[in-house]
Amino acid sequence: MSKNTEIADIFDKIADALEFKGENTFRINAYRKAARILREYPEDVEEVWKNGKLENIPGIGKGMAEKIEEYLKTGKMKKYEEAISGIPSELLQLLNVPNLGPKTLHLAYTKLNVRSLSELEDVINNGKLAQLPGMGEKKVENIKKGIELYKQGTSRIPIGTALPIVEEIIGELKKVAKKIEPAGSLRRMKETVGDIDILATGKNHSEIIEKFVSHPLVKDVLAKGETKASVIVKEKNLQVDLRVIEEDCFGAALQYFTGSKSHNIKLRGIAKDKGLKISEYGVFKGSKKIAGKTEEEVYEVLGMEWIPPELREDRGEIEAAMEKKLPELIEMKDIKGDMHVHSKYSDGIDEIEKIAIAAKEMGYEYIGICDHSKTSKIAGGLDEDELKRRNEEIDKLNEKIKGIKILKGAEVDILADGSLDYSDKVLEELDFVIGAIHQGFKKDVTERIKKAMDNPYVDIIAHPTGRLLTGREGYDVDIEEIIEYAAKKGVILEINCYPDRLDLNDVNILKAKTQGVIFALGTDAHNIGMLKYISFGIGIARRGWLTKNDVINTYSWEEMPLRRRKK
Ligand code: DGT
Ligand code: CA
Ligand code: CA
Can you give the pLDDT at residue 40? Predict the structure, then answer.
């Protein structure tokens, strides 16, 4: 784990502890903000400190810089020890349970002596929690839901966390393996993964296995045999399984271990109907092997087109492959720009110029700068004057930098009554507008989003469900109603590519596509390093069966089918 993450975790724990103790929100937010900045900062904080430049990190003031320095020097932080003193360690973890606030947790701790998840579940089941002042059945029901989410969230890992780990391991194994591929849910680009499955071929099996179990990321070796090994890596206790396969059945093994299980079960049925047998070793007619070296030939002997891994969920892909009617899925090379990037004007780290140059280097034609609007104060939202200044800067930069168009966008808050945070006149001056819920997650969200969609200047709705893969349940929103209304009004729905969000998800994307909705990919990048998150969005889009035409980022700016142009 990098020092950035390590210190960010400590700041977050301080914030948790202060929250639990009921201290002032201003101080709590200061730690949360510092944690977020460190987590997202592209450079190694230890290096920055060594160069004496800690206070140059935007948003890190003197007080926080001192605490960071103290930790880097001594491995300790006094403020942290002080904040957590007197609180049982497992208790603070529980603040990550959705729908369980610090006040309720404090009450459960002081009145019912709850110190752990299992004790919390006990007082829910025996009805004692519901009897506490201010609690009641409904609140407890919500906490119970939160616990379920929490349990899922802690056992599965977002693909954004898993993929870099896998790439590091595979990079190392490439030195000794002839072929090496990730399989399982990771290859299918599922938003979270339970464990990682890697397949390899090569002459010297034991050399590959040795290299794997002795990788610097490995914490524990669970099993080590001649063709298979399982390890736990340091970060997030993720389990990684490696199988070394004979080359002539690599395709069959890759197909088998990519799954999904339901996809495989259906294939097996189809094979059987044809008098064939399919296994991880190949496809067999009697005792004769008729396919197995490549995945393509496995699908071919079953009478199908090769199916992209992202589709293998038994959602109709097998039927489509038999009729040779699989969609031509969107790819990275189709993407002409990113529609959701924050600049230094709001809570991003980088100057617009730097973002534009980075986007150009990625081969983009345009980049949509979307800063927050004025009501999002903690996120540095812009008032009308600041927005005007930012727009003027964009105009100047567009003169100056050739080969990339910078778009004047905004991520505009949808307020409590469903109105937008800027007047129509201000919205009209922008190139495009993303409407977003950032407050009142449980209050009339469906109605508010629909009302926002009535405004002709709202082109896109940001992260439509608001869920976070690391634990937040999302808004109280009827997503089906939103999808239907978006289709009716011609509003674009965002696929937010930020790895904690991936919102809309695959299932909702497919639902929306079926109703004729189109989509916008936006990384929600807060620094240029995050522009690469676009690949997670493409993965989810492919899982939602999207083709090039379904996504506005594949159009040139002039031809982009924005709603404001169709009036
Ligand atoms: P995960 O790890 O929970 O994110 O999901 P997967 O899909 O990676 O599942 P995993 O790691 O349990 O197994 C990897 C693949 O192996 C799975 O996608 C399909 C295949 N597989 C596992 N168990 C079975 C099974 O009982 N029958 C069949 N046909 N395939 C299986
Ligand atoms: Ca797996
Ligand atoms: Ca596995």
Answer: 79
pLDDT of residue 280: 96
Query: What residues make up the domain containing 235?
Result: 157-244
The mean per-residue pLDDT over the stretch 289-313 comes to 97
When computed from its CA atoms, the radius of gyration of the chain, rounded to whole angstroms, is 26
Question: What angle in degrees, to the nearest 10, is found between the helix axes of 506-514 and 479-489?
Answer: 40
pLDDT given at position 378: 82
The H or E element that residue 209 is part of is helix 205-213
Structure tokens at 388: 């005007």
Of residues 434, 445, 468, the one with CA closest to residue 346: 434
Q: How far is the CA of 230 from the centre of ligand 3 (A)?
A: 9
- Alpha-carbon span 497 to 530, nearest angstrom: 10
Q: Tell me the DSSP string of 436-471.
A: E--S-TTSSHHHHHHHHHHSTT--EESSTT---TTS
Atom index in ligand 1 nearest the CA of residue 195 equals 2
Task: Give the mean pLDDT of 424-431.
Answer: 97
186 Cα nearest atom in ligand 1: 8
- Residues 122 and 398: their CA atoms lie apart, in Å, by 61
Which pairs from 25-31 meet CB under 8 Å and 24+ separation?
29/378, 30/64
Residue 278's CATH number: 3.30.210.10
- Considering every ligand atom, which ligand is closest to the CA of 256? 1
In a domain, 445, yes or no: yes
Q: What phi, psi does 425 have (nearest 5°)? A: -65, -45
Who lines ligand 1 at CB under 6 A? 184-185, 190, 193-195, 197, 256-257, 259-261, 264-265
Does residue 337 share a domain with residue 313? Answer: no
Pairing of β 460-461 and β 492-496 = parallel
Question: How does pLDDT run across 8-61, given as a tens digit for each residue?
Answer: 989 999 998 998 888 888 899 899 989 988 987 888 899 999 999 998 888 888
d(CA 541, CA 505): 8
Instruction: Give me the mean pLDDT over the 282-304 stretch.
Output: 97
d(CA 37, CA 348): 9
* Lowest mean pLDDT across 135-149, 150-164, 536-550: 150-164
DSSP, res 228: E
15 within 8 A of 32, measured Cβ to Cβ: yes
Is-cis flag, bond preceding 260, omega within 30?
yes
314-354 residue pLDDT tens: 999 999 999 999 999 999 999 999 999 999 999 999 999 99
How many Å apart are CA 218 and CA 242, to the nearest integer? 13
- Looking at the chain, the whole-number percentage of residues with pLDDT higher than 90 is 82
pLDDT single digits (tens) 84-109:
988 887 888 888 888 888 889 999 99
Residue 500's closest CA among 530, 542, 544, 461? 530
Which residues have CB less than 5 Å away from ligand 3 (the ion)? 195, 197, 241
Residues 141 and 185 in one domain: no
Atom 27 of ligand 1, nearest CA residue = 261
pTM: 0.82
196 alpha carbon, closest ligand: 2
Atom of ligand 1 nearest to the CA of 241: 11
Structural domain tally of the chain? Answer: 4
Q: Are residues 88 and 31 in the same domain?
A: yes
